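Weekly sync, protein design subgroup
Attendees: M.S., D.O., the rotation student, P.L. (late)

Item 1: inverse folding check
M.S. brought a backbone from last month's batch and wanted to see whether the design step gives back something sensible before we order anything. D.O. pointed out we never logged the input encoding, so this time it goes straight into the notes. Structure tokens as presented (333 positions):
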């Protein structure tokens, strides 16, 4: 070893930083407070999950026995009574556990929710087509162009007011304007417009918040390359905010699919699958049928209502899964 060389230093093993810095730097009272906060958050999550799991489990247990392919495609009976069921006692007891095999009625047809399934899909998709593009464009104006101008602040204020308006008001508004004033009949189109009015403020507010989360550095970099504001918004901002925009849109769709009050005044009532396929004619939805079955009473109505509720949850789950998958594909690209 020459004079100019320095001897190698011995590394003190006690000074080696562990893999998790958070654990090594929290000691004593701070460690105990951190552990208490962690346990409290986990307990709060579990407590919040218990009611949700109870509701979902209850719907599955009560609705699964009656849900089948025929249930999802058959016509709705005019009277949810035992006379509408087939002579199969096992099938009859799905709807009425107190039924006896000796008392099974003559063969007719198994009651179903086919028209309500079709009506729910039609009205939900129509309302989404009305509200989601308009809401996203409004959010783009508010955040990218309007910013803090008087008009933008006024639109934000009115959007917040509309968010808190009861859903029945939207139904009365479309009923008064579209049906009474212009003379149109109750239809899936009228119900879709009422649901779109309900969805619009949710889409606007959630979309604006998602656009606000996009870093300004991306906008500045695009502007530095000479891109105009509209092109920056279309090519940079919207792709970056796409997952959040999809999540906000699906929140609005999920609320619209389960709403009952707006469709009571606007959609009418049909029992046939063929009648429910039209857009400009009367239709029905799962939420409307759940309300109708529960209010009418009877032994079979509650079981059919549980089946309709399970079907509605499944539809919302499927639509949400499809939307998340599509948004994930766009993000990967």
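Designed sequence read out in the meeting:
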């Amino acid at each position: 070893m020459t004079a100019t060389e320095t001897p190698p230093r011995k590394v003190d093993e006690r000074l080696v930083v562990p893999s998790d810095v958070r654990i090594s730097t929290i000691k004593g009272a701070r460690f105990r407070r951190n552990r208490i906060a962690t346990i409290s958050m986990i307990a709060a999550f579990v407590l919040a999950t218990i009611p949700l799991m109870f509701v979902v489990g209850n719907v599955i247990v009560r609705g699964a026995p009656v849900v089948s392919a025929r249930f999802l495609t058959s016509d709705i009976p005019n009277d949810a009574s035992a006379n509408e069921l087939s002579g199969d006692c096992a099938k009859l007891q799905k709807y009425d556990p107190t039924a006896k095999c000796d008392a099974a009625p003559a063969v007719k047809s198994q009651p179903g929710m086919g028209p309500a399934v079709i009506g729910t899909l039609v009205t939900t998709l129509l309302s989404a087509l009305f509200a989601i593009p308009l809401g996203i464009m409004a959010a783009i104006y508010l955040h990218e162009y309007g910013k803090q101008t008087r008009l933008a602040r006024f639109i934000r204020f009115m959007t917040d007011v509309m968010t808190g308006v009861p859903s029945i008001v939207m139904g009365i508004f479309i009923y008064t304007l579209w049906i009474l004033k212009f003379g149109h009949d109750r239809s899936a189109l009228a119900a879709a417009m009422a649901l779109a009015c309900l969805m619009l403020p949710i889409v606007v507010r959630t979309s604006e918040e998602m656009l606000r989360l996009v870093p300004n550095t991306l906008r500045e970099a695009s502007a530095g390359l000479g891109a105009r504001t509209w092109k920056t918004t279309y090519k940079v901002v919207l792709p970056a905010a796409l997952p959040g925009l999809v999540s906000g849109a699906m929140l609005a769709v999920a609320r619209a699919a389960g709403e009952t009050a707006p469709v009571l005044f606007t959609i009418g009532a049909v029992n046939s699958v063929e009648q429910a396929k039209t857009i400009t004619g009367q239709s029905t939805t799962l939420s409307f049928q759940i309300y109708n079955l529960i209010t009418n009473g009877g032994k079979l109505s509650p079981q059919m209502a549980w089946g309709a509720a399970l079907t509605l949850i499944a539809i919302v789950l499927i639509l949400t899964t499809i939307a998340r998958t599509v948004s994930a594909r766009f993000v990967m690209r």
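Discussion: Residues 14 and 213 are 42 Å apart (CA to CA). The chain is about 70% helix and 0% strand.
Action: P.L. to compare against the previous round before Friday.
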